[in-house]
Write a structure and sequence with these properties.
By secondary structure, the protein is α+β, with helices and mostly antiparallel strands. The chain has twelve helices and ten strands.
Amino acid sequence: MRQVEDVRSKMLYDYETVIRLDELNELKVKYLGKKGLITELNSQIKNLDKEEKKAFGQAVNELRGLFLEKYEKLKKRLEEDKIREQLEGEKIDVTLPATKIRRGSKHPMSLAIEEIEDLFVSMGYDVVSGPELESDEYCFERLNLPKGHPARDMQDSFYITPDYLLRTQTSSVQARYMMERQGKTPIRIIVPGKTYRREDDATHAPQFSQIEGLVVDKKENHVSLADLKGTLEVFARHMLGSNLDLRFRPSYFPFTEPSYEVDVTCFKCHGKGCNLCKDTGWIEVFAAGMVHPNVLRMNGYDPEVWGGFAFGPGWDRITMFRYGIPDIRLMYQNDIRFLQEFDRKDGE
């Protein structure tokens, strides 16, 4: 109880010295933060005898209540003083002409990802994230790409140290999330985020964005290629047009088996052939496939029990297709004239 009185006396003294809001916030951390004086008193309750706990706990609670009461009163007074000081120091000449404020708008990529996230959340997916500075282990090795694997040459990477790089794919979060779940629970996630490769032209940028999708469930629940196809059809038709068809082409990715490149009907010519689709009638949008057993095994899931699928559309490319943006670099120039176009387009 002597400790409670000591803290009480110190608190009352400290309150007398506070004259600014930042000092008040520091005082709150000092007493109620993780290592605050009142917090430390509260942590001592569990070490007391049963007879002492009630009286000591009541005293600590009263001290906490007193602190918060004085905090709110002083905060209100200091805020009022600050507003009063600002009003006195800022003189406005109401006869001057008003300054026209240019109205901003959401970036087209923000518009696209909000819609994509809403769609997948409605389908039962969680939206998760991971670090952009990634270890070689999670970016490659746990995705069935050991050191020296030739498929690494497909991803021209920005290495910071021999063991760390700017992630080349959001697939690294697959490994991290599976490791967190320790092979015990089903997974249904999407991972929107920035990725980095040494590419720079009208349809590629050194920094670009992907949306990784991952579904893992027990094999008895029959997660199959049909589920993958149905998911991608819903996504493509929602974002790019209701009349699109999907085409699956066999491909190779180290972390899926079987693997597919997924094309959609060209939304400009509707499959007839044009300059956008290079007269093929199809545009490549997705990489997808069934999760490779090695990836499951290396990240804590028994491939004899669990299975699933993964997919990875380019978030930038989806945005370009949705809004008819001809050059990916336009989305990174932050030109307000360009950004203002998309309020009107979404309203049409």
